[in-house]
């Protein structure tokens, strides 16, 4: 080759290698983690997120914050993915996962500076993760998963989040009733719990509707606004003039022919409305548009009809009312028709909402969220969605653990004890993992106004005596060390386990990267 250099990368490609690459990636990950750290816990602060268009979001929900941030660094995006994974899997604990991932990276950075190889760190973190997950299982509370405990789980999830003038106790009751409302022999059908928001009232007006609520307007002004003991047709069929199967043109030479053609169309549309009425239908939900004349004829029969209903909602209404979605509204069998005890329209400002209650089949419920402003209802919706997810998880897994940082303190103690029996430099990584886990109770202490060092010392001492017996409990303007179970602070074990797994996975992935090649 004559000693000439060989270029294998295109011109302009940037490459960062070795310690510089590791340092850059770890710094980016830690920066993202720090962005949400102050939102953790019942005394966590909110973030105001302003988009390029001027849209404003005010929240302390970790995944919402990270999703809204314009993050370009690929390693930082991995931390965002941690929160998204946490949200998808268990619905809560997104901030916990992101903060833990950032702290694992910080501890790994210290080990790299001590010349501990990245592979050794990864292997040590993996061993520590397994110990931590086993500890979560061991520390699960031996309690009945009854409604009182589920309300505590829901409250623990929502405490510190913006709920307006409604108490977390009241919201927790709504959430638990919603989950119980869709619980069947095969478990919980989470998709049958819908959350609908509507501004214009205080958040204390939030309620649980045992049925479906959706935005829809009657197809004609003369239609009734409420129907009792309703027979329901859900369809995506046509409510206009039937189209011929062949292309044809008709020549109209005079007014009489035009009138005859219009009369024929009217007769056809009236026959369609008559057929629907003869089938005993009281209410129509149509995915397609309803021709104005057809709507008028339906109104003459006293039928309440809705047009342009969302595709998924049309199917949901058919299923929940015990009917079948049909493409032929003028030719339906009895088994295609659904039933509900009542269907009513309520006016909210300029918008109509339809309430479908007492449906025959599926256990569908709607949490109808109210609030004075969009910011209030949006944050309240996020809090309720998280609570619904954690309560569902607690019911399905039947595993809950003490909250308030107690479980993390106990996990750290378990990991340290096990580290003593691990040989070589992996022991350093396992001990670093234990220190990283304690960032969670330490952050809770900071956010409640306690001295984090003193609080951590007290937590360790109390949990050494009895694992899971002490956590950081918000009290007035500060916090206190107390038993989280006695204080009603309880979390699903699945939330803790998923946070440990996803945070460890992302941190180890970032630590292993020693070469970053970026094309222009």
Secondary structure layout:
Layout: E1 14-17, H1 18-37, E2 47-50, E3 56-59, H2 62-68, H3 74-90, H4 94-113, H5 118-138, H6 147-158, H7 168-181, E4 183-184, E5 187-188, E6 193-199, E7 207-209, E8 211-215, E9 226-235, H8 255-278, E10 283-286, H9 292-300, E11 304-306, H10 311-320, E12 338-348, E13 351-359, E14 365-371, H11 374-397, E15 400-402, H12 406-419, H13 426-437, H14 439-447, H15 452-465, E16 471-475, E17 478-482, E18 490-492, H16 493-511, E19 515-518
Parallel strand pairs: 6-14, 9-10, 10-11
Antiparallel strand pairs: 1-19, 2-3, 4-5, 7-14, 8-13, 9-12, 12-13, 15-18, 16-17
Helix pairs in contact: 1-3, 1-4, 2-3, 3-4, 3-16, 4-13, 4-16, 5-12, 5-13, 5-16, 6-7, 6-11, 7-11, 8-9, 12-13, 12-15, 14-15
- Average the pLDDT over all residues and give the rounded result: 86
Q: Cα-atom Rg, whole angstroms?
A: 30 Å
Neighbour order of strands in the largest sheet: 8-13-12-9-10-11
Measure the end-to-end span: 29 Å
Broad shape:
elongated
**Strand-residue fraction?**
15-25%
Largest sheet properties: 6 strands, mixed
Number of strands: 19
Count of runs of 4 or more consecutive helical residues? 16
Helix residue percentage: 40-55%
Stretches where pLDDT is under 50 for at least 5 consecutive residues are none
Task: Label the structural class.
Answer: alpha+beta
